[in-house]
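Retro notes, structure queue

What went well: the backlog is down to a handful. What didn't: a couple of records were mislabeled last round, so from now on we paste the full input next to the output in the thread. Example, using RNB domain-containing protein from Adineta ricciae:
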Amino acid sequence: DITRTVLQLYKISKALRSKRAGALTLNQPKLQYQMKADTKIPLSFSIYQQKDSNRLVEEYMLLANMQVARKLCLTDRIFEKVILRRHPPPNASTIQNTLKLIKSSGIDIEGSSSGEISKAIQKIKDDSTQKLLIHLLAKSMQLAIYCCASCVPNNDYSHYALNVEYYTHFTSPIRRYPDILVHRLLGATLDYNENLYQTPRTLEQIAQLCNEKKLNAKTCSERSAELYLAVLIKEYGTISDEAVIVGVKDESLDVYLFRIGVPVRVGINNLPLDHPRTSFQKLSPNQSAELTIYWKNNDPPQIVKQVLKSFDIVNVDIMSEFDINMKKLKLTAQLRHPNAEKLATLAKLCSSTMLDNPISIQQRQDFDPYSEY
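Corresponding output:
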């Protein structure tokens, strides 16, 4: 009976989701680590896998946030103090440049609305390609912010990524102050308590402070995940993996390790190249470029030409080193020779590691769906 009920609820949630078609899902892969219980040194990692039960809970959390936001905004006597979560549309030139870059790889996406972008991503069946597009599009988006509704110019408080007019954070009052304010506002609409005593200007200042703290927490979470991964790779040594090129410069490449959702910059200055014959070419005004390098190969003596451009798959060596200037352990990567023998990937190596009395931790910034939005 419980299983049947859950399945029925999930079907209902899918039907409700279809009514708001156009929500733009830009979640990045989340890593979870296994560590030694005594030293807390990471031993292995895996990608957090969402199940239908997770999606069911998250869908209803989204719907709850939307309905509460709508209720508050349509109650005139408290509207001027309503705390919303708004997501401005991306900068027009930034998103157009990203879409032109994507189009240069043969994928045509119309970006006039979040709905069109969402539909285009959903049509792509290849998981790696989807992850890459999500990574590129997420970089083009602005951050979602808290605001006081009456302080927003032109009443522009819609949520671009979710494609809804009203949205707020309501479901986590035990750990987010904006949710507490929203609960108090909802109580005021139901005559359960008095309205907020702060003025709209003061509430806007509180919202701005919450934006600052949320960004700090997000940055801290990301840096923590980067550090654990850097320590893990330092324990194993140099590891090879596949990456996709997302940016080409005259002396470096920006690559994306799509298996784990980590971007890395790869320099070419330290490679065994025939440097006088290395050339960088800007192909068009839409940010598309290519870098041609010539590898020296001593056995047998010859020059191997390699043309590098966006969306090409390359093999990289992933390392961990201490940056003296930044005073931190960080990931670095080096391009492998196109004819070099492939090594065991990081994912395969970690999945085959025998763990000695491990404990599991989960590197997730937030349980709420679309937590960055």
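Agreed that this is the format going forward. Reviewer comment attached to the example: The first strand starts at residue 31 and ends at 36.
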